[in-house]
Amino acid sequence: MAKDKNILPISIERLKELYNLPHLDNDLLLIDSLHALPVFQNARRMSLCLYIGVCTSGVVTLNVNGKRRAQSHQQVMLITEESVITDIRYSDDFDGIAFLVSYSLLQDILRDVRNMSDLFLLSHNHPVFTLTPEEMKSAGNYFHSILQHINEQDKLYRTEIIRLTMLTMIYDVASAFNRAIDKPGKNEKQSRAEQLFVEFVQRVEHNFREKRQVQWYAQQMGLTPKYLCEIVTTVSRRSPNEWIDKFVTSEMRNLLRHTNMKMNEIAQAMHFPTQSFFGKYFKENVGVSPSDYRNGKERTS
Asked: Which one is predicted more confidently, 226 or 42?
């Protein structure tokens, strides 16, 4: 999907420079008062990070990928990377806290979570959901705990503690989401398009190491490739190929950073025909070579 070069990015790197917000490298940034940040007058694109915002008072409305969204007290809003945000409007009493988490950090802390599709689909199906008072309290506790550790820069195992706390928080967010949408009496059924999108992503999750052709997934679902592309792109604003690449690159990142497997072994495990093809695919999707990534280098723009 082509990007509009005129739409300015919202990135962790940019926000920390502009507003001196608490952060962990370019991986995590905390906002303790959404009301204190300036309202964007022009369109912005969420760049390489996930936004998790918790409204503590008032109401905010905004367009996310062309759809009008509203968030009020005790609600969470999730905005994924590449989402385009326009026309933000706050009530006078609006405020909240927020976490911006890089996808690099997400892929790292979620490397042992096999049910990744639930986390990916959460924000696409229901980007705004309501917390219970107890869940609101927990969200605040997570925020202040992570903020404390960010500020303790000389603390031993600081980064590891923050990552584990983030992992626990993400599990809690997913649990709150499932409770919210499964609440008795909540008549919010998935459309046929959403059902097909969910089925597609779940099939990718289980087959991406061997199958990377959209035509194969369309055939498994009894659809034409063109129709599958239309459905997936309409629901998620990502093409089927982009979803497949997301799972493939996430797994390759994990194998490079968290195993001692050689490059040719990873290429074989991911069913690439050659190590050279594996390297080319990785660089095209991640921005650096596999060896550079393993050595800690990453694209930040």
From this structure: 226
Residue 31 CA, distance from chain mean position:
17
Alpha carbon distance 37, 49 (integer Å): 18
Structure tokens at 112: 């042992």
The length of the chain is 301
What is the distance between the alpha carbons of residues 151 and 28, in angstroms, rounded to a whole number? 13
Widest CA span in the chain? 59
Decide if 235 contacts 193 (C-beta within 8 A): yes
Q: Which residue has the tokens 């398009």?
A: 193
pLDDT in the model for residue 121 = 63
Q: Percentage of the chain with pLDDT > 90?
A: 50
Convert 214-273 into a string of H (helix), E (strand) and C (coil): HHHHHHHHCCCHHHHHHHHHHHHCCCHHHHHHHHHHHHHHHHHHHCCCCHHHHHHHCCCC
How far apart CA 226 and CA 239 sit, in angstroms, is 11
**pLDDT-derived band at 139, boundaries 50, 70, 90:** very high
First-to-final CA distance of the chain? 18
Dihedral pair phi/psi, residue 22, rounded to 5°? -60, 135
pLDDT computed for residue 47 by the predictor? 85
